[in-house]
Amino acid sequence: MGNVPTAQAALFLLSLIIYLVTVVGNILIIVLVVAEQHLHTPMYFFLGNLSSLETFYSSAILPRLLASFLTGERTISAHGCVAQFYFFAALATTECYLLAAMSYNWYLAICQPLLYASLMTWKVCLQLVAGSWLLGLLVSTVLTSLLPQLQFCGPRTINRFFCDFTPLLELACSDTSMATLVAFIFGFLDVVFPFLFTLASYVCIIAAILRIPSNMGRQKAFSTCSSHLTIVAVFYGSLFVVYVLPRTAPLWQLSKVFSFFYTVLTPLVNPLIYSLRNREVREALRKGLRKALASTQTL
Questions:
Q1: String of DSSP letters for 37-65
Q2: pLDDT (tens digit, 0 to 9) for every residue of the chain, 299 residues total?
Q3: Is the pTM of this model over 0.70?
Q4: Helices 8-35 and 266-277, interaxial angle, to 10°?
Q5: How far apart are CA 105 and CA 126, in angstroms?
Q6: Which of 99, 101, 104, 216 has the lowest tally of Cβ within 10 angstroms?
Q7: Closest residue by Cα to residue 153 from 165, 141, 170
């Protein structure tokens, strides 16, 4: 993106719009979930945490990218690079577990409706969310601690628009076998396992929906979890292209494009999908706007 000097202004404006829409949209969802009493349910509790995560997630990458477009400075300090990777890895891992927790919530709501209230209590919700954040921080701490143990002799050009683990390992001139092994193990535990859990949950959900006799009932049941399923498809689809496909030259270029999807576009589409497809969120938004307009007219 930085190889076309004439496009830097346009890229800066586009990235700025994406960042502002992402932050404002996700913060708006957080405010609605906190302010509206009828949204105080497990589903919207998870959604509020997901919106908080997406706000931090985009803020770990986009501001540095905006500064690069604005100033033309394409370098980052070693400490800045490690810090960016730490927050990126922590938030990406947390999102994997949080999406799995949300899929479990949908599984209980659709497949075990009579047991839902007793199984998905507020204590369980807090434990699932806290566990997601703690695991994300733990994994990121371990992976980040491996980087200072490596020697980097050059070149010093990261083949990505942000500091990611694999492009950093490719710059190391010391033995990276231990770091690669640790990253593989954590990749399975923190990406593959949550994905398989999420996939299994949706297989059960879809099977339960197909057993509903009426078309209207099936459509209503599927519409309740379709927003979350869309986020899961975009997020994991991008991760698969970036980290699983072979490292041939054409696919490596494609992976760089898809890295933009899960780091920038996923936080953007989260508030758009949930606000446009969710009737309760739309109603809460209209109610909040009416209150804001009434208070403004009173002043």
A1: GGG-SHHHHHHHHHHHHHHHHHHTTHHHH
A2: 556 666 778 888 988 999 999 999 889 888 888 888 888 889 889 989 999 999 998 999 899 988 888 888 888 888 898 999 999 999 999 999 999 999 999 899 888 888 899 999 999 999 999 999 999 999 999 999 998 888 887 778 887 888 888 888 888 888 888 888 888 888 888 888 999 999 999 899 888 888 888 787 777 777 777 777 888 888 888 777 777 666 666 666 777 777 777 788 888 887 777 666 667 777 777 776 677 666 666 65
A3: yes
A4: 50
A5: 13
A6: 216
A7: 170
* Nearest-angstrom CA–CA distance, 157 and 150: 16
Phi and psi angles of residue 107, each rounded to the nearest 5 degrees, phi first = -60, -45
Helix, strand, or coil (residue 172):
strand
Amino acid letter for position 258? F
DSSP state of 115: T
Distance CA 66, CA 2 (A): 11
Q: Are 125 and 113 in contact (CB under 8 A)?
A: no
Tallying the residues shown for the chain, one arrives at 299
